[in-house]
Amino acid sequence: TPALVWFRDDLRVRDNPALRAALAHGPTVALYVLDEESPGIRPLGGAARWWLHHALEDLAASLGQLGVPLVLRRGTAAAVVPDVAAKAHAGYVAWNRRYGGPERRADTAVKSVVRRAGREAESFQASLLHEPWDVLTQQGTGYKVFTPFWKEVSGRDHRHPLPVPRPQREAPEHVPSGDDLGAWALLPRDPDWSGPLAEAWTPGEEAGLALLKDFVGPDTADTAVALYPDERDLPDRAGTSRLSPYLRWGHVSPFQVWHAVADRRRAAPEGSAVFASELGWREFAWHTLYHHADLASENLRREFDAYPWWLPHAGRGGAHDAAHGRAHGAPPAVVLGDREANRLLDAWRRGRTGFPMVDAGQRELWATGWMHNRVRMVSASLLVKNLGIHWRLGERWFWDTLVDADPASNPFNWQWVAGSGADAAPFFRIFNPRTQAAKFDPQGAYARAWIPELGTDEYPDECVDLGESRAEALEAYRSLGAAP
Ligand code: FAD
């Protein structure tokens, strides 16, 4: 039977079970749908759109080598996928699973329309080591604490990656190629801010696998994975893998990463275990999203609904918006006027808070679409704890600017920093950006790399009093009556 494989966040030809299954069925056509219309699907941010454009070019080229044409369509998945399946005369339609709420609803809709038309539809596990519904506590719920979660998951067997499929011999049905990638206007124009992104990244499968290979290195004790426990918190070193966008877009799979790193267990026992647990946090974030589809809009710990974070358009957004802490009678300790809050939010976004580690991070983010994890934590903490601005606004900014922004890891980590999330940092542990810089950027090399005017009059003064704002945040937190 002719087959259709529908690509989503799995833009690779190796270790791709849906692609393999389609090719095993018969002459295969591939499809990517730019779906900004299915209800609830969050439109991609600017940096992500840039990445996607190049990722699709890369995918089309590697599929071309397998003789598989890539059709591009824009629209609602439940309309587009069945239509292309019909044009390809496909008796079989395959895809790899997604785990967000709106994505799952869209996939269920596609499945039923495809099946109603008498075609077979099958989905596969490709982007998580284990399915969220297979990793449950004894009570049958998702894990809320990372350590037992990871103990359970890392103790299991993870399948080995699948090899690249062989080129198909029989040409599939000709399907009009659909949209032109250029017409989707994914690339920024007027102004084109993508220059530094292109210097920092090569989107695509080969580039992702090359990074992974470099990171694990040979089986010796001086590789990046071996040094990872010592270097991963130093933002001016290339101490982390930088695999996040490649995992986000599925250019590399967690199975490939897990096994590559596990193979270094002998020469780098600590490094491979610490690194694997970071993959575990990725897995945990996605499992959390599966169990809490509203992760990007609702505090997981609902007592934080009364925290008086600043959020504009209070009550107008319809959704659970704004400083409803005020409505719930929390003290107005860190309640900001709109003007003041907008000024602070703007300073944070532009990297002009007067705290060099935060400012360097925000500028790195703006230029390259990525920020070091340590700096993400410090920067997020300043926004939600010292500036009193809602984590959702920080999450939205990251969503728009990160090349690795995904619907699980981004809100999960914002809630982790804010204290409202799963197994979150205790609220009272408020990062001090000065102390963090002294510890993790002791020579100031990272700060100087991103802030040319550091040490001159042009560099702004600190935008908030750390001591006072910390005390106000703790007071507001205490008034929630939340457990520490
Ligand atoms: P490495 O240290 O090499 O880690 C390897 C892989 O493990 C990463 O590529 C990533 O897939 C995974 N990983 C590591 N840490 C985490 C974590 N805390 N949560 C989830 N996965 C993790 N990561 C994203 O992939 N997308 C996001 O949108 C995102 N938003 C974040 C927002 C905030 C406020 C914070 C504090 C962290 C966020 N992270 C996010 C997690 C983390 O900062 C990045 O995954 C990491 O910096 C990526 O760099 P790396 O690939 O070199 O990481």
Topology, pairings included?
Layout: E1 3-7, H1 17-25, E2 28-34, H2 46-65, E3 70-74, H3 77-87, E4 92-96, H4 101-116, E5 120-124, H5 146-154, H6 195-200, H7 205-216, H8 224-231, H9 244-248, H10 254-262, H11 269-291, H12 324-327, H13 338-350, H14 356-368, H15 373-386, H16 391-401, H17 409-418, H18 433-440, H19 445-450, H20 466-479
Parallel strand pairs: 1-2, 1-4, 2-3, 4-5
Protein name: Deoxyribodipyrimidine photolyase
Cofactor: FAD
Binding site for FAD: 228, 240-244, 275, 404-406
Question: CATH homologous superfamily name of the largest domain?
Answer: DNA Cyclobutane Dipyrimidine Photolyase, subunit A, domain 3
Q: Summarize the amount of helix as a percent range.
A: 40-55%
Overall CATH class of the largest domain? Mainly Alpha
Question: Structural class of the secondary structure composition?
Answer: mainly alpha
CATH-defined topology of the largest domain: DNA Cyclobutane Dipyrimidine Photolyase, subunit A, domain 3
Query: How many structurally independent domains?
Result: 3
Stretches where pLDDT is under 50 for at least 5 consecutive residues are: 314-333
Strand line-up in the sheet with most strands: 3-2-1-4-5
Give the overall shape.
globular
- The helix/strand order is EHEHEHEHEHHHHHHHHHHHHHHHH
Our estimate of the beta-strand percent is: 5-15%
Please report the distance between the alpha carbons of the first and last residues: 59 Å
β-strand number? 5
Oligomer status: single chain
Count of DSSP-assigned helices = 20
Major β-sheet profile: 5 strands, parallel
Radius of gyration: 23 Å
